[in-house]
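[Meeting: bench + compute handoff]

Bench side (C.D.) handed over the final construct sequence. Compute side (W.E.) agreed to return the predicted structure before the next meeting so the bench team could plan truncations. Sequence as handed over:
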Amino acid sequence: MGLDIWLGASIGRRENQEDWAGIAALGESHAICVMADGMGGHAAGEVASQVVGTTFLEHFTTAQLSTEDRFMQSLRAANDALAARIQGAPELSGMGTTLIAAEITGDRLFWCSVGDSRLQLFRNGAMARLNADHSYGAWLDKEAQAGRIADETAATSPDRNSLLSVVAGEAIDMIELVSEGLPLFAGDTLVIASDGLDSLSDHRMLAILSDNREENAKTVGQIFLEAVEAEQRRYQDNTTLIVVRL
């Protein structure tokens, strides 16, 4: 089963681009896609995402290990590289990044995720987020659904965007690893994105995917970025996308 993959980005209304993304082909119909959304102030977020993303990708593409060990050792190497960078430049202390790495083997999907960058699957007219959301907002929403807090409290909390887990050169609080593999089918579309895409509602994203299901990955990705820009958000965050069509 062939893979059609596109990567693109928009700086939004920010002064610099703090996202990093990369793709590596590992064989026929076999690829690894990596997304990192940095944070930590001017320049620091850009450094964090670049160090973590490039280190992860380098280790993943050279390691000869089981799927689980390959993901975990690549993540450990990326985290250690960031710790070393901070140790050499203390002014960068406090920087960190989200990370999502998705391996596609033609008909199976494996992933490792830290933070709130998203992995979406579009199949048969429906869209679902596959990876966990390690944000305080996601935790609040679960508490509201369980009836432990009011919906309004969850929706209006000023700390909704705070992250519960990041790659920051220290112990990582929460890691999602799916190493058993999710079956993929011809016609599936995967979208890996930084949180700049959150400017679009799930309804709008589903409409874009549904209306353009015959288009290639590049066209779909460009339509997504144009839709984000059309929202005209005053403080629009960086938006980086990897679109994979099978």
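W.E. noted at the follow-up: The mean pLDDT is 93. C.D. will use this when planning the next construct.
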